[in-house]
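MODEL INPUT / OUTPUT PAIR
PAIR INDEX: 1
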Amino acid sequence: MNNSLIEMGALIEHAIAMATKALMEQDTKLAQKAIDCESEIDEFERRIESLCLKLVLHQQPIAGDLRMISTALKMITDMERIGDQAADISEICVYLAKQSYIKELIHIPQMAEATMKMVTDSINAYVWKDLELAQSVIDYDEVVDALYIDVRKELIQLVHEDATNGEQAFDLMQIAKYFERIGDHASNIAEWVIFSITGSHKGTQIF
């Protein structure tokens, strides 16, 4: 189960990286490869879900192991959504490929790098049962949120200066929003990792 989660996480990180590179280089072929990853990510979700259910039915896990399995089920939901958002970013990249950018892209690739780190660290925290690493992922979400605010301010200013920038500004804002959501999903994963270790989720004792 852990190996499958690591593989799914690596694929998600690869999809984000390809989407980001496709955006920066305006590469439609690379964007399409990132879009194509979505079906493989969905297949990982189904495979891990099936494995978790088999573990519950056949191994009769005790409380600690049951928390690990239930956490994995929660994690793959967020991981699948991250894959969806990487595909959404790539679809916008295809649309923008023939346009000249209205500004140099600085903060968006920084958001991409930050979210990839969050995704990797959240999954590693689960596998290693590392409470401190999980908490660092949650804290790091503030970095992504701050970058999103910077992107939004810059794009709003560009539209104020020239209304013809509006359409592309909206598309770039959408890309930034998708990265911000990826950060939120990685943070959700980290919260479930904390639950798997402590038995507590957002201050509520479960089992």
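PAIR INDEX: 2
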Amino acid sequence: MALSDEKFWKTKSLREMNDEEWEALCDGCGQCCLVKLQDEDTDELLHTRLACKLLDIGACRCTDYDNRHERVHDCAVVSPDTVERLDWLPHSCAYRLIAEGKDLKWWHPLVSGNPETVHEAGVSVRTWATSEEGVPEHKFERFVVRDPSIRKVLTGE
């Protein structure tokens, strides 16, 4: 990738970025592709270990990125218009960080120069997520993340 401005995220708002810059902001963690549940009693957002059927968990990338919204009915559109409303976006998400006026994390590929650092830092879902494919919806609750170290990655707490 040959981006025109090496550190564009420091000088441009999300709205000012071109398509290449926008796509480069994705760190490849896969967290946004996890199935999330909402507790009916408390409205608490519950993260599961289940990944969207389109996520290649090893690569932490969508296998049909161009058609994801047609193939997955609840695949969220992350855009400059929606990023601030998507309160479930990971606290480490570059789109969220930039929208909040913060810098990218040291492990972000644009900072480190290495797409593997997101995985090495333990931020990606690569080692603990499983596909939702074949799991009936009534069993999703069994996959709610309870491990404190994973919950910390997902919630930033």
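PAIR 2 NOTE: Residues 13-155 form one domain.
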